[in-house]
Every structure is written in C-alpha cells, then in structure tokens.
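Hello K.,

You asked for the raw outputs rather than the summary table, so here they are, unedited. I folded two proteins back to back in the same session to keep the settings identical. This is the first:
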Amino acid sequence: MPNPEHAGAPFQPLETLTRHHEQIEGRFLIAERTLEQGMELFQSGYEMVNNLLAEAQRSDLTITHPAEMRPANHPLDIVDKFGNFAAKFRMITGTRETGEKDRLSRPISEPIPATAEEILVLGRIPIIRNEEDARALNASPEFPLVSTSNPNHSVNPAFTRMLILFPDFTTQFVTGFSAPENAKHEDRYETELFTAYQLMSRLVDISDPFVTIDDKVDEAYLIH
C-alpha cells in the first residue's frame, strides 16, 4: 500500500532510512547528554541535588539517605527484566475517537497522551503518604495524569526529582513514550528507559513511601 507521505512521488527508501536514523540518533544524543550530566551530579554528592530541589521549592524531596535499588546493567534489561518500570511512563488523560471504525462499524478510540505542560505540573505534586492523600490527588484537576485506574510514575517521588532536575529529557521522553503509536513498543525507547532508570534509581530516599518493607529497603521498589 502506498505511503501517503510519498503520494505523488516515487518512494525513496534510502531517504526514509536516513530520516529514521537521524530521529533515533537525536534521541540517543539527548539521553546520552542527560545521563552524563546526571552521573556528574551524583558523583559530586547529594548536596548539589538537594540545593537544586530547594531552588525549585521542593525541600520536602531532599535526599538524606539514598536507597540502593536493583542495578540495571544494559538498556535491554529495562524492558526484559524490570517489570512495570517501563509501562508506568505511559501517562494519559483519557481517550478520543480516531475517526475510524472497526469491522463492526464501531468507533475506534485511542489514548490521549500527556502533554509537556501536564508533565511539568507534576513537579508540584506532593508526596503521597496514605490513601487519603491518593484520593485527594486523584480527584484534583491540577494533576490530570494522576489516576488510580491507570497507575504510573507520576506519584513517585523519584520521578518528581528527575523531572525537576532534568525537565527537558523527562518531558520529551514521556510525551513520546505515551503517544498512541508507541503503546505496544516499549523497546523503541530502551535508550531513554535505561537513562531514566539510572537517574531515578539514584533519586530514591529511604524515607519515600513504600521504599522499605519490614525496615528493609525494597530494591525492586521502582519496578513493581
């Protein structure tokens, strides 16, 4: 079937491959640069991390006792071995009709992905300590990405810290990952997922809710 993008012109497979490669390379460079900045930040200790959180008026997210998480040694590990970590980056606010119909003439719907603005708002989300906090946030129009029916990383303090420290990377990654065409293709984002895990796994504090079980750190906290 002809590609509508090339309607009226001969299909140029080399040009298509080149554009595809450029898109992938661009994403890789952003992830690589972000991870490099993150590793430099963590190597200098958590004083700078906490200073940046304080500047964002989120001293409540200060890291005093970093919790050690399960290590990820390769980008492929994130999709293959790390449970729900990838899936929880899919942030949507509802569904919309595509204008197409299925074989039974029923309207086809698709998820409405998060926008960069909706993700940035999560930098203000308070730490959820109990079910009452969760219900209040779920009902709040201020945070449309928080949903008990579609749990995601939006309520995870480690995600909030990453968003505050690396807003450009986080918003670009989550908006792309949440797009309908990527719903069943987590492996397309193995580079960003690996970067996000390396950052978030170093941004977990032992005082964060549910990090400890029977006074022991749950090293799989991020991937449940």
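The second followed immediately with the same parameters:
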Amino acid sequence: MQRVFITCLLLLTACSSTMDTEQNGLSFALPLSPHAPQANDVLFAKLQKRDGSWHLISIASTRMPVDLFNSEERVYIQADKQRVMPDYEHHQYYDDETRLFDCGKEVLYKKHTTYNPCASLFSRNTKFSENWFSWKKQLDTEEISKAVKQTDLLIRARQEMALVIQERQRCLALRQQVEKIIAQQKVSLRVIDQTELYQRGHELVSYDLSVDSEIPTEGCEQDLANVKLRYNLGLHQNFNLVLELRGKSDRDKLENNILSLKRLVAEADNKIIPTLYITGKKVQHYNLYKTWSNTDLTIDWRTLDISDTDLRQLFDVHNLGQSTIEIQRITFYINNHAITQRDIFKLLPLSGKKGLEHASRYFMLEEDVRKSIDDIKTVDKKSEQAEFGIKVTYTINGENKTLFKKDMVLLSSIL
C-alpha cells in the first residue's frame, strides 16, 4: 500500500512539473509541444553546453543542423512573446496527458537518429518505481531558462529580428523593382527546320510565355543587375517534332516541351530571340505499303504502328495459283530485327486474307537488340533510311518453300 502511494505521488509530481508555463519571466508553449510554429516572427538558435555553461553558437530565421555528439541543442524563439522551446525534429509522447516522452526504445526516425527529447539536455529522466527499466523523459524548463539567461538569448533574438525585418524589407523592395522589369520582357521564338520535311518551321510551334524571378524573402542579391530572370515557354506543336535549342548558354534547356531560359537582369534585353531547330520527327505510324511476291503468293505489308512498348504490323496475303497454300510462319524484318508470326493458316486457290495483324512487345528485348526499332522511332538526318523485309515460310503441293525479300526504304516517304 505504501509503494502504491509513493508511485501516485511521483505521478502527481511529474504532472505538475510538466505544466509549468512561466519561469523567470520566460513563457513556454501550452500545451508543451516542442515544434516551431510556422510564423515569420520565429527565430532559431543553436546552443552548446560547455563546462556546465550554455553558449550561443548561431541565431537565424532558418533552421540549422544540430550535432548531437557535440552537446548542441536547437530552440525556436518568439521574442515578442518571450517564448523559447526546443525545436525537435521528431518526438513521441508516452502519455499525452502528462507530456512524457517515451525513451524506452531506440529513437530512430526514417532510419536516422534525429534531434529528439531522448537525446536532449533540455529533458530530464522521470522514473516511476525501482523495478522499471524503461525511462520516460519530460521537458526540463529549468535548464531551458538557464540557457536563455546565460546566453542573453531573448536580447540577442530581438536584435536579430530587427535585422531580419530590415533584410526582408530590402528584398521586398528589390522584388518590386524586378517586377517592373519583368513587365517589359518579350520573347520572339525563332524556329528553323533542318529536316527539309517542312517548308516553314516557325508556323509549326506556338508557345505560352511566363517570366519570373528568383528572389528569396531573405538573403537576396545586393545588386539588381545580378538578379536572375527565368523565362518559361510552354511549347505547343502537333507534329511530334524533335526540337533542339542552340543558344548562348548551357543553362538554357528544353525538356518535355518546356523551354526554360535564364538571364541576369544585366544581360536581359527587352526582347529575347531564342532559336529552336527542328532536327527530326518522332514517328508512331508508318504507311509502308510494301509488296513482295513470287509465282505462288503476294504479301503486302501495309502499315507499322510503334508505341512505347509494342509494334503492330498490318498486312495482306494472296494466293496467286491454283493450289492451296499453307502458311507456316511469317517473319517481318526491321533493320535486321526479326519479328515472327507463327499462326498457321491456309489460302485456297486464288484467294487471300486482308487486314491481318501481328503485335509484338519489343520493350522486353535486350537494349542492343531494341536499338533496331529505336532507330526508326525518329526520322532525322542520322536515320533517313531503314531496311524492311519479309520471309514467308509455306507449303504448297507437299513442298516446303520460302518467299524472302528485303528493301531499303526512305522513311520520310512513308510517314
């Protein structure tokens, strides 16, 4: 009975100590939640305890990393409210009512040790009875007050906040200057066709323009001339063109039909004229319409469809003679890559089959084998031609025979 009474007394003591809200004129957040509020008037300070005394390492409006092995701590400060609290990265309460932290297990968050109450000098152990092996911790408001007093933290925070506000006002004025410059900016896109597929390349591409600047709330450029402007052009074209930007700087890039240009204010003209070159055309469909024949049969490879993963051939076959033909297999060749259709079917005398299809999944092939297909997915100066062929293995009058033909084809002629 006496042990139960002592345990209850300890619990009451723990509860009362966690609810302290003011000490030496310093206030603590209620409820005691060690997370910095999202507000512009918050500062962060890194403190270190050396030889029993607290020292201020740095203070700023942004978080700084904490070295747990060097007795460093990070707090957030609301100077106008005289409020200071540890700014832990991660924590978990053992008991929300008493605000006790659970430190009985290894404290890891996303597989990394973080700045947390279990590794902090701003928390203290609370033990419930002699036979308990797991420790619980609670905020040590006395230690926080001691650190604030020894470092003159609130005085330093007010001084730093005055400088932060001044810096924010300077950056705001700079942003307003840049907005006036942005309003005057224009872009005239030049498009030049190098494929000889189109007569007037500039008519194939239109664009939307937006211009913005890279000016942070704090720590912005001192000189207006060094501010970066970013020109974003959303390109629109319906021809699957392969476009290449050639300009003054490697910083300019074209990705996913978004052209991004960057210029310093000092080098930005009121009118920028970037140049895009049409270097090729992405192809998803070929009108091959290639016919091969011998004295027995004719095969017409009509079209070829290319997706990101598959190939699809559309073809016709026709029996030219008076005997029945049994087709054993048909192999299509694209730049020496073989695609075989193994369905067996018969052609009666002087009859044919139209609109036959065969699909294959070329994306499952090895990269070096798939290159034969990749070469025809784009028509440009490097891949103006490709070799297409057909091999039909068939039986007629009990005799095994083969029709095998190949031809070089100008890709731009079958688009």
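The two ends are 94 Å apart (CA to CA).

Happy to rerun anything if the numbers look odd on your end.

Regards,
P.
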